[in-house]
Amino acid sequence: MTNTILGDPALARYNRVAKCLHWLIALALIGMLALGWIMTSMPNASGKFALFQLHKSIGLTILLLSLFRLSWRLAHPVPALPPGMPAWEKLAAHTTHFLFYILMIGMPLLGWVMVSTSRLGIPTMLYGVIPWPNLPVLPTLDNKQAIGHVAAQMHGLLAYVLAGLIVLHIGAAWKHHLFNRDDVLLRMAPRTLHRFLNRLRGSP
């Protein structure tokens, strides 16, 4: 079910659950990119091991939240894009969202493959508390290390794709808000920020 923006029934916005999931996952993704860069830049040390464990926990959290978000989206209609938006922009918007779901689910799965095939065999503890199993079958395969190597290469490459997609997504949202002057950004923004965001573009 969609609601309206600032009392205007013509402007639909995402519901609270969708907004909450969007911002939780967005912050987690940006944090994971920063954490991944820090980890790979650090020399081998005890602090690096702790960061890897945190990286795994946040990654699995993103996986669970993304699966829930996908199921929520399939069960709840999303607000329509502005009617005047060109067809190519609508296609770009849908493609971007599709790619985000691929990355939000695919990257944690690749990380899970890496952990499950690692020769170190370090158990995964979700936030140091909840034991998390390896993926079934993978640890018993003869070529598991080759599989883990491919997963690691893809995981690292997709991190750059994700970073680029986030920049593109943010840029497009502000372009719509400041230049197109439509309500694409307001659909997902917290309601408490609507008045501030409208002032940025000179709206009452």
Describe this structure in words.
Helix content is 67%, strand content 7%. The protein is elongated, with a radius of gyration of 20 Å. By secondary structure, the protein is mainly alpha-helical.
Quick synopsis:
By secondary structure, the protein is mainly alpha-helical. The chain is built from 6 helices and 4 strands, in the order E-E-H-H-H-E-E-H-H-H.
Task: List the main descriptive attributes of the protein structure presented here.
Fumarate Reductase Cytochrome B subunit; 204 residues; 67% helix; two-stranded antiparallel sheet; mainly alpha; disordered N terminus; 6 helices
Per CATH, the architecture is Up-down Bundle
| Major beta sheet summary | 2 strands, antiparallel
Regions with little confidence, pLDDT below 50 for 5+ residues: 1-11
Number of helices: 6
Roughly how many Å apart are the termini? Answer: 27 Å
* N-to-C series of helices and strands: EEHHHEEHHH
Query: What's the Cα radius of gyration?
Result: 20 Å
- Cα shape: elongated
